[in-house]
Amino acid sequence: MIQAKFTKLDEEYARKMSDLCVHEVEERRRKKLDELQLLENSHCDYQKMKMRMQSEITGLIERMEATRKQWG
């Protein structure tokens, strides 16, 4: 009788632990997904800024060349 009760308690404990592990894994996966989305957004913002700066630099160089030709 006592052995059956211990077996039942062990099974219940194992089930609760596995449920807990599943929840922990799901929570870690959700956090990693959030981090990935944040990194993707940051990378996208960086690429936009880089392209805007390259465009501005190209415009400045063209203006400098035009000014140099005008003076030279």
What's the total helix number? 1
Which percent range describes the beta-strand content?
Answer: under 5%
Residues in helices, as a percent range: over 70%
Instruction: Characterize the largest beta sheet: strand count, sense, and whether it forms a barrel.
Output: none
Poorly predicted tracts of residues: none
Kindly name the structural category. mainly alpha
General form: rod-shaped
Number of strands: 0
Using the CA coordinates, give the radius of gyration: 31 Å
Q: What distance lies between the first and last C-alpha atoms, to the nearest angstrom?
A: 105 Å
Oligomeric form of this entry? single chain
What is the ordering of alpha helices and beta strands?
Answer: H
Look at the structure and give the mean pLDDT: 91
Any chance you could write out the topology, listing elements then pairs?
Elements: H1 2-71
What does this structure look like?
The structure is a single chain. The protein is mainly α and 72 residues long. The chain contains 1 helix and no strands. The longest helix is centred in the middle third of the chain and has 70 residues. It is rod-shaped, with a radius of gyration of 31 Å. The N and C termini lie far apart (105 Å). The mean pLDDT is 91.
